[in-house]
């Protein structure tokens, strides 16, 4: 089954990969962003989700059957995150009253279980592996506000919905606010350039404990599946690759790809935000010498977000049983996710 898709956030790590997947599968795809990137087969829609007037104008002639909400805007506080990101969902769906909507898919994440950045991994947390029937935490969380906006619109308009909760997403996108794979690739390239130790930046719990990640390509397939499978309607899903690993193992695989030796772990966090704080001039020099496409380090990496993921004080593992029971059986080896990404970054002259 195919349809007409509108992807909010088509230039991001989720939206970009989803757009390419849907085009290949034969969908008509519209990609909404403030600054759309060119994707073959995707009709760009220039609009600001915080501006209802711009949305109504931009979407007046767009009649999607399926909407995929894959973006958010980081604010200074969680209260502001709730206000702004909730309004973005409400504004988007409000501008589509004319559209024959059949399904709306919302991408959130494991902060549903772990809490927002202000209280990340603190307080009483659900047991791992995280399961979808575990309730909301008793804290402000913009994911919950976004969900409630989708639920209210679905009840009013009669379309079905799905919520997708990936773990850390590994995939190709540039200028993305949450991009561990690109950040680690740039960090490894800097370590190779300078001879600095390739040092795992996170917590002992993450180094020694089990974890998982989500390949953006698998997430794209899951979004398409849930949006066109009647049994998956009106359901929230965890979405991960299907394997588990320890960073003590994966760090060596990443190091090997870049021709590095992993540094001994010091049993304490050494955040990337601190390690990379003075690297912007060096990266600009490397980019000039190697003719890389992005010389601005700040546009390329998100060390703050990688530090948040790798610095968690608890083991984080995600259950996929709900999807498996309903027929989504895709699997992706996570080490291949990283290696495939690194190879593409090198081929497209993002890293040397």
CATH topology category name of the largest domain: Rossmann fold
Structural class: alpha/beta
Order of helices and strands: EHEEHEHEHHEEHHEEHEEHHHHHHH
Q: What radius of gyration results from the CA coordinates? A: 20 Å
How many alpha or pi helices?
15
Q: How many separate domains make up the residues?
A: 2
Q: What can be said about the biggest beta sheet?
A: 7 strands, parallel
Account of the 3D structure:
The protein has about 350 residues and is an alpha/beta fold. It folds into two domains: about 160 residues, NAD(P)-binding Rossmann-like Domain (Rossmann fold, 3-Layer(aba) Sandwich); about 130 residues, no CATH class. It contains 15 helices and eleven strands. Strands 3-2-1-4-5-6-10 form a seven-stranded parallel beta sheet, sandwiched between helices. Strand 4, helix 3 and strand 5 form a beta-alpha-beta unit. Helix 1 packs across helix 8. The chain is globular, with a radius of gyration of 20 Å. The mean pLDDT is about 95.
């Amino acid at each position: 089954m195919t349809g007409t898709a509108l992807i909010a956030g088509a230039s991001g790590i989720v939206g970009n990969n989803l757009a390419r997947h849907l085009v290949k599968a034969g969908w008509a795809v519209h990609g909404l962003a403030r600054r759309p990137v060119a994707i073959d087969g995707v009709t760009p829609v220039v609009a600001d989700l915080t501006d209802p007037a711009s949305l109504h104008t931009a979407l007046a002639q767009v009649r999607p059957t399926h909407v995929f909400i894959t973006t958010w805007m980081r604010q200074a506080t969680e209260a502001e995150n709730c206000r702004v990101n909730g309004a973005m969902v409400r504004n988007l769906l409000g501008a589509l009253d004319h559209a024959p909507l059949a399904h709306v898919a919302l991408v959130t994440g494991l902060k549903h279980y772990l809490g927002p950045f202000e209280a990340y991994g603190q307080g009483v947390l659900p047991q791992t592996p995280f399961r979808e029937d575990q309730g909301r935490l008793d804290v402000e969380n913009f994911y919950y506000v976004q969900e409630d906006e989708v639920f209210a619109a679905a009840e009013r308009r009669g379309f079905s919905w799905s919520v997708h909760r990936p773990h850390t997403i590994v995939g190709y996108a540039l200028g993305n606010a949450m991009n561990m794979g690109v950040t680690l690739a740039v960090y490894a390239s800097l370590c190779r350039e300078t001879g600095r130790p390739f040092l795992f930046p996170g917590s002992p719990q993450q180094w020694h404990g089990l974890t998982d990640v989500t390949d953006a390509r698998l997430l794209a397939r899951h979004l398409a599946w849930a949006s066109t499978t009647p049994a998956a309607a009106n359901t929230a899903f965890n979405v991960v690759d299907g394997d588990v690993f320890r960073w003590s193992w994966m760090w060596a695989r990443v190091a090997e790809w870049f021709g590095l030796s992993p540094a001994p772990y010091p049993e304490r966090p050494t955040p990337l935000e601190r390690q990379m704080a003075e690297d912007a001039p060096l990266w600009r020099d490397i980019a000039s010498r190697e003719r890389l496409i992005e010389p601005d380090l700040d546009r390329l990496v998100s060390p703050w977000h990688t530090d948040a993921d790798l610095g968690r004080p608890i083991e984080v593992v995600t259950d996929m049983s709900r999807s498996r029971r309903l027929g989504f059986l895709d699997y992706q080896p996570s080490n291949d996710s990283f290696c495939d990404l690194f190879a593409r970054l090198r081929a497209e002259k993002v890293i040397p």
